[in-house]
Amino acid sequence: MSTGPKAHVLVVEDDAPSRAILAYLAEDQGRARVSQAASAREMHAILARDAANLIILDLNLPDESGLSLARQLRTRSEVPIIVVTGDDSRDTRLAALEIGVDDFQTKPYDLKELGLRIRNQLRRSMAIRRPGQLESSARVAFAGFVLDHSERILERAEGPAVHLTPNEFMILAALLRRRNSSVSRASLLDAIGDSGDGPSDRAVDIYIKNLRAKIESDPRTPVIIATVRGFGYRLVG
Question: Nearest-CA neighbor of 114 among 3, 11, 7, 1?
Fold first, then answer.
């Protein structure tokens, strides 16, 4: 990590002294740059403008459950997540691991050990995101379109780009990550779970309807985004 762009670590912790310690460990003598958030709202605002290579996440936040945040993050990406929490119960640990977090550390944690765990997760994250691989994962082709995650736009093979709202983009990205598999409405809700208007199952259906109007040749008989009756949707192709 000593050459090229620095890795970006996002520390999400509402307790200021704990947040400062985690940021210090993550910074690792200048090897990484660190952003700090004291709430879920701040976390979402940072990620909207700057992708992270690693997220260190406290489970006890003032505005949203850390487990819910981890579920939303995992729905959208494979960014490594290290959970730090004072809750050492078996149920909480299993719930976090089932969601797909990469590490689970209970307070009080050993500073040297946690520092090494952070460094190891970053090393793996940056190795996966080598320049030659980043392009293929950032631009995903399907059905005559290319979804560009870095620019957050939907390109046509021919013609102008398609304008997507932020929620439409996140739903389409979630469907693409599980291409040809059924995705539940609940999972799609998780993909847009940071919305301030409290999205519902009905909202997901409206976003899908709007997406179909933008990408289907005939939105009344969709062939790209199929309905899975009583469950959710599936992106075909």
Answer: 11
| 95 found inside a domain | yes
Residue 130's nearest CA partner among 4, 230, 2 is 4
Running DSSP on this structure, what letter comes out for residue 151? T
- pLDDT level of residue 193 (50, 70, 90 thresholds): low
Give the global pTM: 0.60
pLDDT digits (tens, 9 = 90+) for 148-158: 876 778 998 77
Looking at the domain assignment, is residue 161 inside a domain? yes
223: containing domain: 134-235
141/97 Cα distance (integer angstroms):
31
Residues 206 and 119 in one domain: no
Q: Show Cβ contacts of residue 36 under 8 Å, excluding neighbours closer than 6 positions.
A: 10, 11, 13, 19, 23
- pLDDT at residue 199 greater than cutoff 60: no
Among 105, 129, 153, the domain boundary falls at 129
